[in-house]
Design goal:
By secondary structure, this protein is of the alpha/beta class. It has four helices and 15 strands. Helix 3 runs antiparallel to helix 4.
């Protein structure tokens, strides 16, 4: 129970660090649908990995109904994951998301095939995905990369890169665009 409380506090601190509109932990805990979706996903994922799949799927669908964020209970999500304006998010079953990842509204981490294989993206640490972007297939988005709004990514993106357009064109981050691969936000929890 203590670990869950620490994780909730860490999520709230991360929301404050990522969203300039975040005003306070109590308000954020009540009104941020992205946080609600993440917290419910953690419970659903816990059930899923223990082979309690029916209730996990029911919880995921109920959460989708309440928040507009669809996260398959099989998806693996790291720490300090933040969804800003979460409506329309879709995260597939075999998606893997690292630490300090941020998604904006309308993002799809989807598959391209209907086989029981790794068919959804892997987002490494410190990745940001812009509004409406689609990342499709078992691609890897390297640490410290950013996907622009409405981009369609179907190929791997190297670390510290930016991908924009349809289909996405990839380029390295330039001087002032570079970000540290460790989140600079200090979490005093």
């Amino acid at each position: 129970m203590l670990a869950a409380w620490k994780m909730i506090r860490e999520d709230l601190a991360h929301a404050r660090g990522k969203d300039p509109a975040a005003r306070g932990d109590l308000e954020n805990a009540i009104v941020y649908s992205g946080l609600h979706a993440i917290w419910a996903h953690r419970v659903a994922h816990w059930l899923w990995i223990r082979q309690i799949k029916g209730p996990a799927r029911i919880l995921a669908q109920f959460t989708r109904f309440l928040t507009g964020v669809e996260i398959h209970p099989g998806a693996t999500i790291g720490r300090r994951f933040f969804i800003d304006h979460g409506m329309g998010i879709v995260i597939g079953e075999t998606a893997e998301i690292g630490d300090n990842v941020m998604l904006y509204h309308g993002v799809t981490l989807g598959g391209q095939v209907l086989t029981q294989t790794k068919r959804h993206p892997t987002l490494e640490d410190n990745v940001t995905v812009g509004a409406g972007a689609k990342v499709l297939g078992p691609v890897v988005i390297g640490a410290g990369s950013a996907i622009g709004a409405n981009a369609v990514v179907t190929k791997d993106v190297p670390p510290n890169s930016i991908a924009v357009g349809v289909p996405a064109k990839i380029r390295p981050r330039r001087g002032q665009e570079k970000i540290p691969l460790v989140d600079p936000v200090f979490y005093d929890i």
